[in-house]
């Protein structure tokens, strides 16, 4: 009980509990289309992918799972996107429970922002933005699907809601076997999905700045400025890189006109932000395109949102440290502000742990399968960064490799620092410092 009272350790425990409940639900005969029990690993993999808002699947979501199973999956990635502690706190407020410091800290730890601020205001913003974006996106998708794709109104509503919730939560789940490849020439489907994904991936601290300070850029926090600028730069990089590398690929952009190429290149520059949908066959991408996706997926989106990866701010902090060292500056920083040493150490820690986990997982899977290294590495980065895109090898992985992917998705969603802290039995202040001595670096 003492362990569970610590919010830093409580959050991973709640995620595990949610995954356990999701696995049980998907193991029920009513959850599958043919009325049989889903294999335990299939249910566990799908539940973890949904709670971790990843989108990797070993079975087709639209045909393998029944309506009950699909609704359960939707609820899981909605809960995973909001955050287990955020949802629990909101339910507590609705039920009239007191909103104490313990709940505030637990909620903000899950969101990656351990501050004793007014968490209630943040939670209201989270819920308001989530419901508004999902409702608008669902309405647009429903109208378009019903009017253009010969769907009944009921089917259009369900597909519109499912894809809208999946998009905002960066979950990447689709009721279609080919994800959204059937809409690759339809901007009225792809653009709303892109917009919802982008809003979900920038993070709620940025939304809070936008709500409180509007467009007064000078008053925005350093976090918001770094996130917006960094995200914009990565989106532009991804767009031009994918457009150039896949321009003449007959299996992807090659057969399209200029407008189609631009639309789908833009769509796939957004997807590595941990969204997981694909309008093009990722398995047909050239290796150079896969390498660009490695970088974009590993970085991910904004902190304290629905995106995964090491986060844009982490990458920018590391870039600023390198720049400061090259220019001979004492401090690293941006926009007239310097970073604290603890932030620099956290950024380095997150990146090293992430790279080590991906390296270890990739090495293991390559050693037990005959799958190409490029595809296995793509799968592992996609799992850790909770992206959900795949070259098509997920279902072909042996059981032990699928378990590794499950672990990567869980660690990637909970966060490397939160997960490491949850495993630690506690820390004590260091009352001494060793003598300083420098090493030869490089």
From TrEMBL:
The lineage of its organism: Bacteria, Pseudomonadati, Pseudomonadota, Alphaproteobacteria, Sphingomonadales. GO terms for biological process: metal ion transport. The keyword Transmembrane helix applies. Keywords: Cell membrane, Ion transport, Membrane, Transmembrane, Transmembrane helix, Transport. It is a multi-pass membrane protein. The chain crosses the membrane at residues 43-59, 71-99, 119-141, 188-206, 226-245, 294-327, 347-370, 404-425. GO terms for cellular component: plasma membrane. One of its GO terms (molecular function) is monoatomic cation transmembrane transporter activity. It is found in: Cell membrane. InterPro entries: Cat_transpt. This is ATPase.
